Amino acid sequence: MALGGFCRVGPVLSHLILSAVISNIAPRVGGVAHMPMKEHEAGERERCVTGIEAIDHILNGGIPRGNTVLISGSVGTGKTSICIEFLIRGALSNENSLYLSVTEPTDKLLKNVIPFDFFDDRLMKQGKLQFVDLPKIYAELGIDKEDMDTESTRLLVDSIAGQVEEQKIRRLVLDSVTSVCYRIKDQERIRDFLLRLGTVLSAKGCTSLLVSEIRSSEEGYSRWGVEEALADGVVVTGNLERRGDLLRTLQIVKMRGTTHSRAKYVLDLTTSGVLLVPLLKGGSVTGGG
User: Fold this and answer.
1) What is the pLDDT of residue 42?
2) Which residue from 2, 116, 166, 228 has the least number of CB within 10 angstroms?
3) pLDDT tens per residue across span 26-48
4) Under 8 Å CB-to-CB from 252, ≥6 apart: which residues?
């Protein structure tokens, strides 16, 4: 087991397993009837193709370039796995990618990256894929207080923006924004931080995923209640109980700049990447978003 509970199985076998588990809930992913796709019209925003095929189909080609997207869910629902695949796929497509880890040391995190079949450690040696521990940035900026004031939050945004500019970062993950907000505490300062961060990243053409940690029983998509309002997109991961089994789910609630399906999907994490199966309405109990 690794990285959120990966199973070392191929895509075909994984789909068969999921189909057996949810046989009376969801049909197999088969075509555009389940995952809409359309040709982009002239004048539409450039897309950041995530590389996660099912998500790109749901979003009609990918995330609009420069969007800030909240990846929200409770523990064990696949948030970090989605984010890391997003970055690796970007690096493989020659887009410099940066992962900012707030609570988990990079060394520990990297041990969980290896199970991806498509992961190539040369991406890190070439600087295409970078992992940075945010506490080290705090130390460099002299942010040592438990409560971050307005000056500290703006220093942090400027530092992140500087790294994005210097390293020509096109994809960024902050895992988690919840942990940063714990240190800011005040809702107005949180709002200022998120607005500044989203604005500067968008201006630099950087598409970002912000991980939001919520409790399984919590309403809304963030701990502080302002993150989902300010984000350009909201992707919700959760758990669904089915006949004693706990399945992961994914639903795109919001995405500015594109039409998209708002259906709920069963999410499977494999060494081949994230796989999704459409979920039909049924008598199941959901939790965690």
Assistant:
1) 56
2) 166
3) 443 433 334 444 445 556 889 99
4) 55, 58, 59, 233, 234, 235, 236, 260, 261, 262
pLDDT greater than 80 at residue 193: yes
Q: Which domains does the chain have, with CATH numbers?
A: 11-21+49-279 (3.40.50.300)
CB atoms within 10 A of CB 38: 10
pTM of the full structure = 0.85
Cα separation of 209 and 29, whole Å? Answer: 25
- What Cα–Cα distance (Å) separates residue 170 from each residue in 94, 104, 138, 144, 243? 9, 23, 23, 29, 42
Give the integer Cα–Cα distance in Å for 131 and 63. 22
Residues 6+ apart with CB under 8 A from 111: 2
- 231 forms beta bridges with none
What integer pLDDT is reported at residue 123 of this predicted model? 95
SS3 230: helix
Helices 177-184, 187-203: crossing angle, 10 deg rounding = 140
258 vs 27, more confident: 258
Q: What is the pLDDT of residues 165-189, one digit of tens each?
A: 999 999 999 999 999 999 999 999 9
**In 3-state terms, what secondary structure has residue 12?**
helix
